[in-house]
Amino acid sequence: MKRIGVLSSGGDGPGFNPCIRAVVRTAISHGVSVMGIKYGFAGLINGEIDELDVRSVGGILGRGGTILGTARSEEFRTERGRLTAIRKLHEYGIEGLVIIGGDGSFRGALQLWREFNFPVVGVPGTIDNDINGTDMSIGVDTALNTVLNAIDKIRDTASSHQRAFLIEVMGRECGYLALMSGIAGGAEMILLPEVETSPEEVASALKNAYLRGKAHCIIIVAEGYKPGLEAVASYLTERREELGFEVRTTVLGHVQRGGSPTAFERLLATRLGVAAVEALLSGQSGVMVGLVGNKVVLTPLEEVVAQPKKIDLSLYQMAKMLEK
Ligand code: ATP
After folding, report:
1. 9, 45, 100: which to mutate for ligand 1, most atoms within 8 A of CB?
2. Minimum-distance ligand 1 atom for the alpha carbon of 76
3. Which residues sit with their C-beta closer than 6 Å to ligand 1?
4. Global pTM?
5. Distance between CA 295 and CA 186 in Å, rounded?
6. Dihedral (CA of 113, 289, 268, 171) sign
7. CA-to-CA distance for 273 and 309, rounded, in angstroms?
8. pLDDT per residue over 156-210, tens digit each?
9. Which residue numbers in the chain have pLDDT < 70?
10. Which amino acid residue places its CA nearest to atom 3 of ligand 1?
């Protein structure tokens, strides 16, 4: 292989840049040039492609976001769109592709490999940590630290005013971020898409916490929890006299996607970026690089996308035990 391409696709997260840097510098060390493809599959179809050299990825280790930009592309889901994508890859002399993204992006990658036998290697990048074949995806650790920082700050004001705070964190299908930030942040309750919890149960926990003499009550709510943050908040507010705590809500939103990647994130992104290029150059394709038990491993993309990764519910039980 003389030239490879790299793109980021789907939702962004901190750590994409150190990964791109690792991809570029590893490939160049092996005498292979690298084309940076802007805005995911959409940019590939439109030919938004430029060479990345060693210097062009300088100074990005600590920068959030992705210098390549990211996007979702409806056109790439069509056969015609993918045909145009392959033509562009040939036009630019790109012989293999590193794709940083989530499971949707890997489904797209698989299509390129299956339909055109085009070499692809995936790198897991999503703050949801819902990708099989890796303990951690790029973006998760930084997002977790951002959430934790917010919980700590909100707890200060919650204690001062004897308030209960419902804090909504990202995770539409997967409650990983809510569960882990709830444990690390010492939340009094964690509401997940994976675990049914009624507003009545939340009210009862709140009342109990008040009766136990707690100065505050922090409840972490995953975005995908049903019936949702607003429904629970209004249920609790209507019963404010009976519950003791006054209730406030905070939606953390997109702050969770930004910021300088943590040390763990930079190391993970770097290791996976290096491994992705080495896999591609050694003839591997249709695989994803991941970190399992602190070792970099390859997993077939078919297995990766077969089903979303589930959270470890024993950790939820542990969190419940510690909610005192
Ligand atoms: P995140 O988990 O952060 O949302 P993602 O990679 O799962 O990231 P998606 O929007 O699901 O994000 O997918 C990104 C892009 O991958 C889509 O816009 C589309 O171009 C391509 N893609 C997704 N699924 C398929 C598919 N089945 N076939 C072809 N391309 C696909």
Report:
1. 9
2. 20
3. 9-11, 41, 72-73, 76-77, 101-105, 107-108, 111, 126, 128
4. 0.96
5. 30
6. positive
7. 22
8. 998 888 899 999 999 999 999 999 999 999 999 999 999 999 999 999 999 999 9
9. none
10. 11
Distance, CA of 111 to CA of 157 (rounded, Å): 50
Cα-trace Rg, the chain: 22
Pull the structure tokens for residue 240: 């404010």
The secondary structure element, H or E, covering residue 34 is: strand 33-37
Note if 135 is an active site residue: no
pLDDT per position as a tens digit, 290-324: 999 999 999 999 999 999 899 999 999 999 999 88
CA pair distance 174, 241, nearest whole angstrom: 34
Q: Are 224 and 172 in contact (CB under 8 A)?
A: yes
pLDDT of residue 159: 83
Looking at residue 161, its pLDDT comes to 85
**Catalytic residue, candidates 12, 50, 103, 128:** 128
- Nearest atom (ligand 1) to Cα of 12: 3
Q: How far is the CA of 111 from the centre of ligand 1 (A)?
A: 11
Compute, in angstroms, the gap from residue 107 CA to the centroid of ligand 1.
7
Pairing of strands 217-222, 189-191: parallel
- Which domains are seen in the chain, by residue range? 3-139+261-304 (3.40.50.450), 141-257 (3.40.50.460)
Token digits for 84? 């145009």
- How far apart (Å, rounded) are the C-alpha atoms in residues 148 and 187? 10
